[in-house]
Write a structure and sequence with these properties.
single chain, seven-stranded mixed sheet, Double-stranded beta-helix, alpha+beta, 15 strands, 26% helix
């Protein structure tokens, strides 16, 4: 049975139906999901009660090699014992809420900045798969920005200018903008990576901006000029017309293409309510 995609936004994002990701193994269905990603950039799958093992296994079936060099690994050990399974939560290893002054909480607050997963690594992140475990009673939406539509809306002259630029991405930089302090040893582990400012999807032929709060400088411009341009592009790309907000429900799994979108977490009462999600990101290996 062919998958059914229902649009959730005029420009991108769709809900995918009639599939149980725990049991999908055939190439045809996996190819349908990938084609949906090329079209929509963000896919929402409802009623997917995945275990950690099932989520990891599906990610590997879907897109191969998993990202394991997470930024938070420079600070603390993964509480699941597997760096491919990123802990998107506000709890410690015992399940207790992190105190307001906990360093791990401060690090995680940067997820509220617009970003792309694993842009600070080479190879970079391709698809992210985020699955619910525990949800707070209100808030904590995830917003996505369509970087393809943002590119399409730029003047032609600016598009021509941007095509030759490369950008250094650093997860340490994005945290430092919020006042987070790293040790010299931690900074040595988080040196970042360089990627083109503009992506090209070889399947669809569409271009997209490749931005993030991790983007620290444009290598071809002076530092002030590059950062001003990055700020201007971020403001352009996150206009309301380019943004889709996902309201989480139990059993949701959302997949997004980091090469075509940015995303950010929205606030909730994290000092009162638990929120636990698991993220797996695949590497952009062709």
């Amino acid at each position: 049975m062919a998958l059914e995609f229902t649009s959730l936004h005029p420009l991108f994002a769709a809900e995918a139906r009639d599939v149980d990701l725990r049991t999908v193994e055939d190439r045809a269905t996996l190819d349908e999901i990938r084609a949906g990603m090329d079209t929509y950039g963000v896919l929402v799958f409802r009623n997917q009660p995945l275990t950690d093992a099932e989520q990891l296994a599906f990610a590997e079936r879907f897109d191969g090699t998993l990202h394991t060099k997470t930024g938070v690994a420079a600070l603390t050990k993964n509480r699941f014992g597997n760096e491919a399974l990123t802990d998107i939560s506000n709890v410690d290893e015992t399940g207790a809420l992190l105190p307001a002054d906990d360093r791990r909480r401060h690090y995680g607050l940067a997820n509220r900045l617009w970003h792309t997963d694993a842009s600070f690594e080479n190879p970079r992140g391709r698809y992210s798969l985020l699955s619910t475990r525990v949800l707070p009673p209100a808030g904590a939406n995830t917003e996505f920005a369509d970087m393809r539509a943002a590119w399409d809306a730029l003047p032609a002259a600016m598009q021509d200018e941007l095509l030759g630029y490369t950008v250094h991405h650093s997860i340490a930089y994005s945290r430092q903008t919020l006042g987070f302090d790293f040790s010299a040893e931690e900074l040595d582990k988080l040196r970042g990576a360089v990627h083109p400012l503009v992506n090209l999807n070889p399947v669809t032929g569409r271009r997209s901006l490749y931005l993030a709060s991790h983007a620290s400088r444009i290598n071809e411009l002076s530092l002030p000029e590059g950062r001003l341009l990055l700020r201007e592009l971020m403001e352009h790309a996150t206009q309301a017309r380019f943004v889709f907000s996902h309201t989480w429900a139990d059993g949701d799994l959302v997949i997004w293409d980091n090469r075509a979108t940015m995303h950010r977490a929205r606030p909730f009462e994290d000092y009162k309510h638990r929120r636990e999600l698991r993220r797996v990101t695949t590497l952009d290996i062709h």
